[in-house]
Write a structure and sequence with these properties.
By secondary structure, the chain is of the alpha+beta class. The protein is built from 13 helices and 20 strands. The protein has a five-stranded antiparallel β-sheet with strand order 1-2-3-7-8, covered by helices on one side. A four-stranded parallel β-sheet has the order 12-15-16-17, with helices on both faces. The protein has a three-stranded antiparallel β-sheet with strand order 5-4-6, covered by helices on one side. Helix 10 links the parallel strand 15 and strand 16. The longest helix is centred in the middle third of the chain and has 15 residues. The protein is elongated and about 70 Å long. The two termini are 25 Å apart.
Length: 381
């Protein structure tokens, strides 16, 4: 299993193919698995450490062999990875602590950035395979990606998201009758906004829980269809009301208009959109489907233009400073590249996430890279 994105996957795959490896999928997960299987070392811990030395990017890998459980986390710690103990005997490794709760496992600690972990019949083994770089946990885990019942860096996400709503209410107040959230990821923030503003919170959209995330659908037609299937407005709650609608983010600006239209059709008197994230103006290269920059609406439109596009009566985003106050941690301990363009490690200016799925894929091309790394920090080599 893999959470993240390998930046040098194309080069690694070409090298493996040159050495006679036949691939069965187009994923970078298989690349890491093939490297691990063929890595030098007399133990799985040594092989994992060797594998990590050739990987570039954001990754949390877990692998299972007949006798071992293996975990690897990149030296920036972009994605979370947790270790749990089951009944004092077994071990669990999961990307979120809520998975440990469901299994009845007790949280032990996080896999450290740059750490390799192996669990086998002889017990628990860990090695700092790579020197830890600057902390660069993806702040989007707090905004949207992780579940609200998960704990990251010792903080439960639900109250952190409520903090985002409170900050939004302070930064962007507006007169309205009710506050609603776009479920489920914005529910806690909507409650926080309501508590801070004194405007009552209520449920205005019912979520169909059998429909997955819409912003990661592969094309726009599926994203729009997903919105229609995903939400149903409560007309008797909404009709004639001035709404504050809290959402976690606006990525492409293609699904939010459908939500606004849905609420208008249900009789909303006015709709004021409040967004828990700053404008997303740069693509994510580290495992979240944040499109290319030209697809990101905030990268080429002003807030007023976006407001008109989505059809809301007003629109406001949480500032980056407000977001940092909400998470109660310093900005330099996160990756905030989708907001600032300052990536914690060198990335290609234009990465093709479907590079392995193109017909006739040739050898990896040498392309310019941009390294938005502070001068005081070591580069990724």
């Amino acid at each position: 299993g893999h959470n993240g994105n390998l930046l040098n996957a194309d080069v690694l795959r070409d090298d493996l193919e040159d050495s006679g490896t036949d691939f069965e999928t187009s994923t970078d997960t298989e690349i890491a698995a093939r490297l691990l299987a063929s890595a030098p070392g007399s133990s799985w811990l040594e092989r994992a450490a060797s594998t990590m030395k050739v990987l570039s990017g954001a990754y949390c890998f877990v692998a299972v062999t007949p006798d071992s459980l293996i975990a690897m986390r990149d030296p920036y710690g972009v994605r979370p990875l947790s270790i749990g103990r089951l009944n004092g005997k077994g071990w669990v490794i999961a990307s979120e602590t809520c998975a440990l709760d469901h299994l009845g496992a007790k949280f032990v600690r996080e896999v450290e950035p740059g750490e390799a972990v192996v669990i086998d019949s002889e017990g628990f083994h860990a090695e700092q395979a790579l020197e830890k770089r600057r902390d660069a946990l993806c702040v989007f885990e707090y905004i949207y990606f992780a579940r609200p019942d998960s704990v990251i860096r010792g903080k439960l996400l639900q109250p952190t998201r409520a903090n985002m709503g409170r900050e939004l209410a302070r930064e962007a107040p507006v007169d309205a009758d009710i506050v609603i959230g776009v479920p489920d990821s914005a529910t806690a923030a909507a409650i926080g906004y309501a508590n801070e503003s004194g405007i009552p919170y209520t449920e205005g959209l019912v979520k169909n829980r059998y429909v997955g995330r819409t912003f990661i659908k592969p094309d726009q037609r599926l994203r729009e269809q997903g919105v229609r299937l995903k939400f149903n407005p409560l007309r008797q709650v909404i009709e004639g009301k001035r709404l504050i609608v809290v959402d976690d983010c606006i990525v492409r600006g293609t699904t939010t208009p459908k939500v606004v239209e849905m609420l208008r059709n249900a009789g909303a008197a006015s709709i004021h959109m409040r967004v828990c994230a700053p404008p997303i103006v740069h693509p994510c290269h580290f495992g979240i489907d944040m499109a290319t920059q030209w697809e990101l609406i905030a990268a080429h439109q002003e807030i007023e233009d976006i407001r008109q596009h989505i059809g809301a009566d007003s629109l406001a985003y949480l500032s980056l400073d407000g977001l940092m106050r909400a998470v109660e941690q310093p900005e330099d301990s996160f990756c905030t590249a989708c907001f600032t363009g300052e990536y914690p490690m060198p990335v290609q200016l234009q990465m093709d996430k479907l590079v392995f799925e193109r017909p006739g894929r040739g050898k990896a091309r040498k392309v310019p890279v941009t390294a938005a790394v502070p001068a005081s920090e070591p580069d990724s080599g």
